[in-house]
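Hi there, hope your week has been kind to you so far. Do you reckon you could talk me through the fold, stretch by stretch? Thanks so much in advance, here it is.
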Amino acid sequence: MHPMVIAVALSATHTFSKPVVPAITLVKGLGVQGDAHLGVTVKHRSRVRADPTQPNLRQVHLIAGELHDELQGAGFNVAEGTMGENITTRGIDLLALPRGARLRIGGDAVVEITGLRNPCSQLDRYQKGLTAAVLGRNPDGSLQRRAGVMGIVIEGGEVRPGDLITAELPALPHWPLERV
């Protein structure tokens, strides 16, 4: 199976879940048109409180549909957009990508992966135990964050379910994803 988009979502307000829509438009250097996180500087409320001038490395949130499958199997009520993602994928291991990997999505859009989403307490407010379900331990004992990846828009374009995704890795050395 070729990696692909299975759903897209956006919300004009700071809501935990985002409604699924037929298509989203990625805007170069800004994010998802019409989404509350659109902008050059950070829009996540906790980050704005810390420093509203920091660059927005969280313009686009992507989650693997395979994570939804796993969570549903464990009894969680999650689906596309539920965990606040803009793009739900299938067939690509987002968490294994190095920092700086670029995803070509559909005909024109390019998203550069900046890091991992840090699971927050909103997950448990949505459904008790969800935060713990998206955290784990790597073989070296370090914390594993599995709630998706964040990225910035390098090239804009429309993204819709069924669009194919091609990953382009950065030059070596590859740096593992860290929380952003």
